[in-house]
Amino acid sequence: MTDLEIAQKNEMIPIQKVAEKIGIDEDSLDFYGKYKAKITMKTLRSFLEKAENPKSRGKLILTTAVTPTPAGEGKSTVSIGLGDGLNKIGKKAVIALREPSLGPCFGVKGGACGGGYAQIVPMEDINLHFTGDIHAISAANNLMSAIIDNHIHQTNALRIDPRTITWKRAVDLNDRALRNITIGLGGRGDGIPREDHFVISVASELMAIVCLSKSITDLKNRISNIIIGNTFDKRPVKFGELKCTGAIATLLKDAIRPNIVQTLEKNPVFVHGGPFANIAQGTNSINATMSALATGDYVVTEAGFAADLGAEKFMDIKCRIAGISPDIVVIVATVRALKMHGGMAKADLSTPSIGALQSGFENLLVHIENISKFGVPSVVAINRFVTDTDEEIELLKSLCEKKGSKAVVCEGWEKGGAGMTELAETVCGILDKNEAKFHYLYESNLSLADKVRILAKEIYRAKSVEFPESVLKKLREYEELGYKELPVCVAKTQNSISHDPKRMGAPKDYVFPVRDVQLYSGAGFVVIYAGDIMTLPGLPKMPAALKIDVDDDGNVSGLF
Asked: What is the DSSP string of 117-132?
């Protein structure tokens, strides 16, 4: 059966029954049908208060993975399966995940609900409109754009230079034709003509802000602090100067609250926020993670893509802002993916190859070493495929052991929580030792350029960074404006540890090229664009949308 067919055959229970397992009563929920709900603001505040005390919150388990390949890794599947596995062995475990974007759902990557018998449901709802969070963010983002352009059109009292506007419009779809556009064409009443751009909604600064805000007041402050452009005399203009922050926050008053759903095994899952890890911070919301930490003894969360992207940003961005840290990291790997990193073609992956696996192991080793640089213990989760041979599995376990890392075979896709109990026991065993001595990769007082250099050397294994003078000038300007202390968020390809998607395996000693930077003053980080990275993806030649359909009863088909 397909993932969708497995999900549709599952019999869900009312969401209030799921919430009761972690002490959330019916009055603490706002329902979106029988199987989805948001927690109330009052309940959210109580969860934040509890989770801010390290002694009263659960253990935090972060899931990351090897560098993605077309062969698939299954990070969400392992995260969901591990949560079910922990509950299966008698632990009170809660899962916290990101919301899927419509871009990948109708494009090429797929959804974010796991797979096989390690899924969250209702799968169709979560992968499509869910509770409307991303739509609200898109609408609020574009209202900001409309307000900016209207201000310029009407009186431009702030004397904003239209050529300097950095705030972009947003759409939650892959539409390459909107990357670079011209607006304001027509007559005098149609606005001021200028160049504009769209980003995918999950890469917008507003998505980052929603995921990093703990309250409406926090949200308003961050929105007000967004720098949208400069005046004609080169003074930075913040959105708060347009006096419309309250209207934007009003559109987001529900989107800031975490959603709760269930796994196939009826365990609770907070699903909230969906920033991409290759062009944003790649983690779910602070509110969702804190809610999970307040209600579970063990919390399984994930960061997008591999440890060079999502995990690093989780540590250096989210943990700084939230005041939390992971107690252990699970690194998901597959024999198939590692053989691709070892030079094997996708069409040949079913053929056993010890040589390709040994060569591809170097990619996994880089991610193991990356996690150790944050002072956090790790364990490797081998997400088993039916084509994997016993010899290949044993070799991978042996290679990990020689490097001081435990590797455990996972069969969550086929068996659900029952196929994840060994990993659950292993994780708990490591957690009992309290080995985590978490620290950031770089200190806040370093220059922005030096922070990038440290990332490039320590995480991406580059020998140097190439900064155009125009980029160095921008970074100096950001520092002069008082933003030196901010962390950096590197936007680069997810398909390589480097900036070049063609460099698979474990590239090293290359030049890491930075082509542009942008200040996200509201979110609280500086985006570094490396290589040919797009903030609005395009559709592939054969998009997933060609297979998706719905019948007269509203039943969806072809969705994975």
From this structure: TEEEESHHHHHTTTTS
Residue 246 burial class via C-beta count within 10 angstroms: exposed 0-12, middle 13-18, buried 19 and up? exposed
Residues with Cβ within 8 Å of residue 141, at least 6 apart in sequence:
169, 170, 201, 204, 206
The kind and range of the H/E element at 366 are helix 354-372
The reported pTM is 0.96
Token pair in block for residue 168: 């972009």
What is the distance between the alpha carbons of residues 530 and 487, in angstroms, rounded to a whole number?
A: 16
Cα 531 from Cα 450, distance rounded (Å): 18
Q: How confident is the model at residue 109 (pLDDT cuts 50, 70, 90)?
A: low
The string of pLDDT tens digits covering residues 173-229 is: 999 999 999 999 999 999 999 999 999 999 999 999 999 999 999 999 999 999 999
Q: How far is CA 59 from CA 204, 297, 428, in A?
A: 30, 6, 10
Give the per-residue SS3 of 469-503.
HHHHHHHHHHHHCCCCCCCEEEECCCCCCCCCCCC
What is residue 209's three-state secondary structure?
helix
3-class secondary-structure state, position 541: coil
Considering only CA atoms, which of 235, 313, 305 is closest in space to residue 496? 305
475-524: pLDDT as tens digits: 999 999 999 999 999 999 999 999 999 999 999 999 999 999 999 999 99
Which residues are part of the catalytic machinery? 75, 77, 98, 109, 277, 305, 385, 413
